[in-house]
Amino acid sequence: MFFKCVKSGYSKSLLEFVHDGIMSPNGLSSTIANVRRRGLTRYYKLYKIFAERVRRIKAGNPANIYPLYLRLWINIVK
């Protein structure tokens, strides 16, 4: 089984990862679970970077007022 990827936005490493998962004993279901897990990991990493940036801005200018949801998120992440 071969995948051909031309200007589709998928990286070669992702396609190799999917191919290896399809060929494994667990099959496609484990591949899908691994891709989802990797996506969630990236999502939370970006979310953490965003929260840290907001925290730094707040520390630099305490008079700056943030919306309630950002204030709640900053307190949760601390």
Would you mind describing this structure in some detail?
The protein has 78 residues and is an all-alpha fold. It has one domain (12-77). The protein is 71% helix and 0% strand. It is built from 3 helices and no strands. The longest helix has 33 residues, at 28-60. The model has no long low-confidence stretch (mean pLDDT 70).
How many discrete structural domains? 1
**Outline:** elongated
In terms of DSSP E residues, the strand content is: under 5%
| SS-derived structural category | mainly alpha
Q: Round the mean pLDDT to the nearest integer and report it.
A: 70
| Rg computed from alpha carbons, rounded to a whole number of angstroms | 20 Å
For the termini, the CA-CA separation is 47 Å
Q: Count the beta strands.
A: 0
Give keywords.
mainly alpha
Secondary structure layout:
Elements: H1 12-23, H2 28-60, H3 68-77
Helix pairs in contact: 1-2, 2-3
Question: Quick summary of this structure?
Answer:
By secondary structure, this protein is an all-alpha fold. Helices cover 71% and strands 0% of the residues.
